[in-house]
Structures are given as C-alpha cells and as structure tokens.
Predict the structure.
Amino acid sequence: MSKTFEIFKFLNQLAVNNSKEWMDANRSWYHECRDHFKEISQELIEEISKFDHSIEGLGLKESIYRINRNNRFQKDLPPYKEYLAISISKGGKKSPFAEYYFHLSPGNRSYIGGGLWGPEPKQLLKIRQEIDYNPDPLLKLLNNKKFKNLFGSFHNFNKLKTAPRGYSKDHENIDLLRHKHFAAFQSIPDEHFKTDHFKKLIVNSCKVLLPLVTYLNEAVEEEV
C-alpha cells in the first residue's frame, strides 16, 4: 500500500478534529505526511521539468501550499485546509504564470489541473487578445482527443453571460472569450493511490496540459 494512504488517514482525522489543539497534539504525524508529500512533489517537479523547461530549478518552498488556512476574511472557517496541494509553475505559486496543479484529498477528491484560474484583469485582457489574434493553437488543444478524454474542456465557473468589453457577441470564438478562468481539471479516484503509479498518471496528464500552459504563458509574458 502506498504511503499516500497514510496522508489520507491524517487528512480524514484532521477533517473530524480541525483545531489547533488537535494539530499540536499530532504535529509529528503531520510532519511525516508533509515530508512524504514533499517527496512526491519533488519527483513531479523533476519529471515535468524534463518537458517543460520553464520550471527547471523550481523549489518546493515556491510550490507547496501551506496547510494553514487564511481566515482573515472568513473567521468561521476551520484553521487548516483538509488537503495538500502544489502549484508547479514558472516562478512559483505566486507568479502570474500558468500552472500544473496537484490537489491531494481523500474521498475521491484528488485531482490534477492546469492553466490559469482567476487571472488578474491585465492577464485576462492579454489572454483574450491572444484568443482573438491567434486562436488556432488553443482550439487545436481543446479539440485534441486525449485532452478531451482527460479534461473535457475549460471549467465554466463564473463565465460571462455576454461578450466581454471590446468584443462582438458574434465573434467566432465568443464562447472562449467569455471565460474568466482558463483551466482544466481531471479527477483522480483514491484507488489510484494504492501504488506509486499515480505519479506517472499525473506526469502524463501534465504532458497533455503543456500546450495550454505554454499558450497562456506566451499570452501573459509581456505583462510580467
């Protein structure tokens, strides 16, 4: 059985006992799980950097999200996230560039994703300009059989109901221009984590996402 299931056990217990007191009493268990997640993350970075050279040299500190939740604006939320996650992107998780995102959570809630979620207004403007002037690479990816089988299409959350400012509602790619998020996700059931084979699954999925990450990074490059 993969050590990843030990992380699942920890996260399940954290979901039931999400408090600073419980975390303090189980801090050594958490560190064991986090160390294993670091090992997974380091291996993913090394494998993905073989085909996406923009992330070569990326460190874990710039990539792994903290388990502590930021509760400044929502005081009623529990203090800790009930998942572990990493953002693999040029410049790290705080950069404006597109990412490969791995989210580890028990209960069939793990997933791999990629692209840009909630780009800043200037980034969004540049992406829409790229779709307007150079849509073919993106359309080719979205129509790619392997991409469609793994990811379907972009997530439709908060999509505009009408054309964005400056674009006609009759634009040939108006459906893409209405997106506010340019990201796709693939669910990974718990059973895939019984062995370390899941890492190969993630890396292969990221290979499929590479054209999306490249396209978006080229679009926002001038704004960095």
